[in-house]
Amino acid sequence: MFAPFCKIAPLFLALLVSSALLPVDAHAEEKPLRVLRVKLGEGKQDSFVAGLKRFSEAEGFAIRVVDYAPMGGKGIFIQMFRHEVKIYGANPHDPRDFGLSFFESSKALVSNDSLDVLTSKLTSHIGDASSSVIIK
Description:
This protein is α+β, with helices and mostly antiparallel strands. The protein has helices at 3-21, 45-59, 112-126, and strands at residues 34-40, 62-68, 75-81, 85-90, 97-104, 130-135. It has a single domain (3-135), classed as Sirohaem synthase, central domain (Double Stranded RNA Binding Domain). Helix content is 36%, strand content 30%. It has a 6-stranded antiparallel sheet with strand order 2-3-4-5-1-6, with helices on both faces.
């Protein structure tokens, strides 16, 4: 009875989670303040997620991590929220190529200096898992 649902459940979950990551308010066209492209070392995905959790705890972010497995892959959605900044991340195509995008979460302006500090702290927390970090 549940066998057909079990086959589509991972796809359904991935679609549900991806729709939750999309903004649905007036800021739907909002461009990220900053984007990080992180190349993970071989087998370092768990270490990377642990680093993101340490960063979120140290910097006062709420964090949500959702695993999904499209086409048998190992994908992750990340959401981190704080009063002035929200960070969304995913690796939809390659488990070793991760993108993190920073957005304003309030009307208050986020300075480049505060983004520089957050970026530096985040990269220090994930440093042992990444082979490279590109800041855009």
